[in-house]
Amino acid sequence: MEKRIIFHIDVNNAFLSWTAILLLQEGYKIDIRNIPAVIGGDEKRRSGIVLAKSMVAKKYGIVTAETLYSARNKCKNLKVYPPNYYWYYEKSHEFHEYLKQFTPNTLKYSVDEAFLDFTGTKYIYSDYIKLAHHIKDEIKEKFGFTVNVGIANNMLCAKMASDFQKPDRVHTLFDEEVKKKMWPLPIEDLFMVGRSTSKRLRELGINTIGELAQKDINFLTKYFKNQAEFLKNSANGIDDTKVEPHKSKSESISVTETMPKDLQDINELKEILFRQTSEVSRQLRDKNKFCNVVAVIFKNHQFESYSRQTKLDNPTDNTEIIYDKVVEILENSWKNDPIRLIGVRLADLCSDRKTQISLFDNNTIEEDDKNSSFQKKIDEINKKFGSNSVVPASIINKIGKNKLRK
DNA sequence: TCTGGGGTCCTAGGACCC
DNA sequence: TCTGGGGTCCTAGGACCC
Questions:
Q1: Could you tell me the fold of the domain covering A252-404?
Q2: How many Å apart are CA A315 and CA A195, to the nearest integer?
Q3: In this structure, is the CB of residue A379 within 7 Å of any atom belonging to strand B?
Q4: Ranges assigned E (strand) in A162-304
Q5: Which CATH number fits domain A15-85: 3.40.50.720, 3.30.70.260, 3.40.1170.60, 3.40.50.300?
Q6: For A293 and B13, how far is CA from C1' in angstroms?
């Protein structure tokens, strides 16, 4: 069978590069890619972590997701810049649109990563390495940021390859190169081996990808159960995932928020949950979907997380019905501890709500449909005039009642 | 001035039914 | 007094990704 040809294209330090470009455009004299700099959250809002770092900052040992406090300890003259998500959205869009000209088989993997499948195109592109350089250089010239391109016979290896030396590079990791290029790497470098798995592997004396690759499958199964085969295959560079959007059964929409201060007042929590419920249910209606499961997510002052979810009798996209559930969950499951983060998640989404009708449900489907189209109109108005300028009176009443109960 | 936010997938355990 | 087993559905929590 013909070997596949897969590219993985990864924007180098995406958020930081994109902010660098914006700053230069605005007349800023320094290219923050060349100094110790990071894109960071807001410490006053208790979200002070590193979102992206420059290569210079990386040399100081600064890693993504560590606290700004600790990053500053590693580098005294570190510069911190805030993220600009609107701008990132634009850059990301440019990047993904640009890639589509090369093949219809592209997969947007994240804001700053894409897979391209060139299998069966050898009559169009005779030299894939040349093509990769062309893409890389043209992105740099057109958009002002650099990328890494990984070329391989499957997605896993393409992704591993683009992660080799950075920035502004093209790497290959074809099947026959796996032993030489991937096996010597530390186990942490293997895609899908995170902190927990790498710790367990190292405890078993498995320190490199090569050691994992050659380990007996029965031995691995003892410790990693069903994950064992996946791990061993990955270490051997075996992966037959197709370059196509993974049609997952369990789609979900969620919003979570770390509050500037811990909250312990149920009415304050309800106010935030109402805002969050409006947001997620509007997203749900935008997608023309209904949800079957509603969940509330908590993180307390001690950083312990917990969540509670309930299945609905019937799928819905109605803010009010969802908010009722959210409040019910809050009242039944909040442990009365100081809450640092709270959020709402809608899960088990479906596009068709006509599944089953509860015997004791007073709402008919027709009524629900009326509500649904009414809410969509409200969504449109909110879009024009800013969110929550119009909310159904019944919901305002609920909020009002909560406020009165204070 | 310590520790984000949005996702997917997997597993373990309990409830319930036959 | 002792106490099956298979299947399904549901929930909570954890691991991992960017």
A1: Dna Ligase; domain 1 (3.30.1490)
A2: 37
A3: no
A4: 170-173, 252-263, 290-300
A5: 3.40.1170.60
A6: 20
Q: Identify the residue whose Cα has the smallest distance to the C1' of B5.
A: A256
Strand B nucleotides, any atom under 7 Å from protein beta carbons: they are 1-12
User: One digit per residue, pLDDT tens: chain A, 406 residues?
Assistant: 889 999 999 999 999 999 999 999 999 999 999 999 999 999 999 999 999 999 999 999 999 999 999 999 999 999 999 999 999 999 999 999 999 999 999 999 999 999 999 999 999 999 999 999 999 999 999 999 999 999 999 999 999 999 999 999 999 999 999 999 999 999 999 999 999 999 999 999 999 999 999 999 999 999 999 899 999 999 999 999 999 987 777 799 999 999 999 999 999 999 999 999 999 999 999 999 999 999 999 999 999 999 999 999 999 999 999 999 999 999 999 999 999 999 999 999 999 876 444 444 455 566 667 677 777 777 777 766 655 555 555 555 444 444 333 2
Integer distance in angstroms from CA A364 to C1' B16? 29
Please indicate, yes or no, whether the overall pTM of this predicted structure exceeds 0.85: yes
Q: Which of A198, A195, A221, A218 is nearest to A208 (CA)?
A: A198
Separation of A183 CA and B3 C1' (Å)? 33
Q: Which helix (H) or strand (E) holds A310?
A: strand A305-316
The total number of residues shown for chain A amounts to 406
A249 touches strand B (CB under 7 A): yes
In A135-183, which ranges are E strands?
Answer: 147-152, 170-173
CB distance under 7 Å to strand C: residues:
A 65, 109-113, 159, 191-198, 293, 295, 305-311, 333
